[in-house]
Recover the amino acids of this structure.
């Protein structure tokens, strides 16, 4: 199994610099990091990848069983770390990837030396004594949205979904491609993302951790950011002046600044 | 839009055209604001953080909202259902940031009354002179009907997939059933015939077997087995019917004959026992079943000498003997009756010796009743068989069966009945002289 090809691993930046691994969340792929990557790459070795089932990953490696649990995604992270023989890498996880990072750091001690969580949420669904922001019915609505965008998307995305190795330029020309994925795979990822409960995992985080929340985020509201910060011993909380769930796109400078500040303090 | 060189003067003197022109101008002058507000689609413009800066009347009416409650107070995501919000944040917003525009995304909006409005949304980012994003322009189309149509398509597609999956499961099941049946039939088939013929001292043997039924269950049978005292019993026959029904009778016949042979191998006794068993088994049921059969005992000669053959027949075509000198003898057993029809049946016996170079052939009527024309009016027949066999003599058991197999193959579709051949031969001394140049054949 060629892990680099399977997870579409890309390595940029300073070859001898400390390693920063950027992990995308549900929805799109490693292109999410395009706007913050240059700032990080100046002094760091930047590793980006796609989870199996997303972006340019090898869809044939996807199985519903493995990717119906966050542990399956964590195995992707661990396997990429092992493939590149990373030690003490700084794992930057967006959204659900923050919780994937928690599992990966626990599964492979020594590979991940610190974590930055971008707009994390350990549990999206409201539970007794906890407000995640959504009900189970809300998550069902999201699944319907995925479904109803299926017709329009699948025709435009078909060459990407089918894979078109002999004509790679097709994939480049298509718009929307970096958020495109097989609808069956997207449904499994959505369900896994939004119905997981990782709250108990947070107390076991042993590496230095930065929690980055956005000032206005309908997916991970500020009280969730405060919860994550409170649950991870010794973590730091930064509130980015950013609207939406993707500060690395809506406020790339502020996001990069906060990350670089965290990275500097680690050394 | 005005064409140069065609000033206002040119329309003077034509009242009708002037009137149309004036009405057209009035419409155009009125249109900019009016078109925006009352367009048949929704318009809104937001700041980059999604705060609504401008929204048209059409969209406000669709949503049942007042302008002052929306402009500057709400963001685009606030107008969406929860599922729409999640989709917007995980797909729509990132794509718009990366690409600058998005077209035809299906979302659901929430009206003031709480109803859902299915819409198709297109958005484009407006950039400043420095390439910095300034605002997002969005158009919203009511897609209720289209969404209903798409949902119908989706539903049909899911139904089709479901049906396809069911068909595939049924096909797998049928394939498994077919395989299981084939396995069962193979086991049954093995109970009808010996898997291989035993090796007899000083005797060459050859067989051919063909079933007309596709499940490979036949009504013809043969066997060859030792009696334990240096002699060998053999038989070949044909039960009435074809397929599984015939096969069950075949099995009974074969095992009855084998058992009878071990009790008393004398040909007449063995066939009489078979007659009794078949008659007893089937006559009471009102569905009489019977067979024709040749049963014999062979005693190989010592040191390659002649073998002796005693046989009995119940209604079966005569055995043929191809002599070493090229002649053909019929081992005629006239008067024998079908076995199993009557409580006691006459059995006719015959005997011969097989000298070196002689070959005994037993066959079933599938051979002689093979069609040589389009209908059963033209059959191969016994005379043709005798002629064919005479042309082969002298020969060996294997060569004879090989020649007859080629003959049968030539009948193609005409071979429409079960067919069995059994040949027993005493090799010549020497088995085969080296071919000479003036071979008379």
């Amino acid at each position: 199994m060629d892990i680099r090809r399977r997870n579409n691993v890309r390595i940029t930046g300073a070859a001898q610099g400390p390693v920063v691994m950027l992990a995308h969340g549900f929805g799109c792929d490693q292109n999410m990091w395009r706007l913050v990557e240059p700032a990080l790459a100046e002094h760091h070795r930047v590793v980006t990848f796609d989870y199996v089932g997303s972006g340019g990953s090898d869809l044939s490696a996807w199985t519903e069983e493995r990717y119906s649990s966050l542990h399956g995604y964590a195995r992707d992270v661990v396997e990429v770390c092992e493939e590149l023989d990373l030690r003490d890498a700084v794992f930057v996880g967006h959204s659900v990837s923050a919780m994937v990072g928690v599992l990966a750091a626990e599964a492979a001690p020594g590979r991940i030396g610190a974590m930055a969580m971008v707009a994390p949420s350990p549990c999206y669904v409201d539970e007794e004594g906890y407000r995640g922001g959504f009900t189970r019915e809300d998550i069902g609505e999201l699944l319907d949205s995925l479904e109803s965008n299926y017709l329009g998307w699948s025709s435009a995305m078909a060459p990407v979904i089918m894979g078109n190795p002999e004509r790679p330029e097709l994939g480049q020309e298509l718009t929307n491609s970096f958020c495109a994925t097989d609808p069956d795979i997207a449904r499994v990822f959505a369900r896994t993302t939004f119905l997981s409960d990782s709250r108990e995992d947070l107390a076991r985080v042993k590496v230095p951790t930065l929690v980055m929340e956005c000032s206005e985020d309908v997916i991970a509201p500020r009280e969730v950011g405060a919860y994550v910060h409170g649950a991870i011993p010794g973590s730091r909380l930064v509130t980015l002046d950013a609207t939406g769930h993707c500060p690395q796109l809506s406020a790339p400078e502020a996001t990069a600044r906060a990350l670089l500040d965290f990275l500097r303090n680690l050394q | 839009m005005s064409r140069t060189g065609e000033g206002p003067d040119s329309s003077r003197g034509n009242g009708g055209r002037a009137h149309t022109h004036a009405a057209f101008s009035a419409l155009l002058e009125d249109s900019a604001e009016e078109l925006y507000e009352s367009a048949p689609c929704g318009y809104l413009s937001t700041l980059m953080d999604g705060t609504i800066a401008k929204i048209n009347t059409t969209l406000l009416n669709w949503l049942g909202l007042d302008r002052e409650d929306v402009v500057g107070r709400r963001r685009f995501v606030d107008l969406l259902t929860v599922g729409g919000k999640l989709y917007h944040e995980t797909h729509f917003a990132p794509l718009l940031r990366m690409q600058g525009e998005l077209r035809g995304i299906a979302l659901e909006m929430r009206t003031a009354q709480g109803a859902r409005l299915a819409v198709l949304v297109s958005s484009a980012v407006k950039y400043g002179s420095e390439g910095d994003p300034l605002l997002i322009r969005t158009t919203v189309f009511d897609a209720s009907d289209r969404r209903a149509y798409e949902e119908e398509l989706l539903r049909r597609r899911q139904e089709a997939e479901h049906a396809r999956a069911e068909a595939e499961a049924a096909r797998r099941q049928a394939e498994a059933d077919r395989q299981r049946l084939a396995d069962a039939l193979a086991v049954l088939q093995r109970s009808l015939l010996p898997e291989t013929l035993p090796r007899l001292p000083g005797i060459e043997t050859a067989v051919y077997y063909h079933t007309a039924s596709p499940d490979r269950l036949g009504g013809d049978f043969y066997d060859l087995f030792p009696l334990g005292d240096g002699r060998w019993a053999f038989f070949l026959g044909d039960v009435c019917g074809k397929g599984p029904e015939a096969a069950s009778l075949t099995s009974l016949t074969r095992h009855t004959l084998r058992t009878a042979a071990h009790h008393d191998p004398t040909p007449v006794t063995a066939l009489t026992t078979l007659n009794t068993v078949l008659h007893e088994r089937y006559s009471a049921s009102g569905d009489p079943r019977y067979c024709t059969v040749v049963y014999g005992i062979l005693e190989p000669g010592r040191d390659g000498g002649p073998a002796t053959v005693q046989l009995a027949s119940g209604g079966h075509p005569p055995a043929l003997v191809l002599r070493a000198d090229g002649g053909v003898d019929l081992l005629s057993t006239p008067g024998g009756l079908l076995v199993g029809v009557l409580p006691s049946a006459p059995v006719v016996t015959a005997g011969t010796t097989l000298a070196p170079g002689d070959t005994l052939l037993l066959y079933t009527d599938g051979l002689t009743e093979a069609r040589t024309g389009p209908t059963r009016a033209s059959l191969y027949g016994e005379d043709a068989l005798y002629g064919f066999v005479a042309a082969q003599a002298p020969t060996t058991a294997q060569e004879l069966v090989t020649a007859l197999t080629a003959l049968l193959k030539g009948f193609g579709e005409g071979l429409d009945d079960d067919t069995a051949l059994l040949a027993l031969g005493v090799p010549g001394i020497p088995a085969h002289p080296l071919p000479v140049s003036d071979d008379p054949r």
Confidence is low (pLDDT under 50) at residues 1-12, 431-441 of chain B. DSSP finds ten helices and 15 strands in chain B. Residues 155-191 of chain B form one domain.
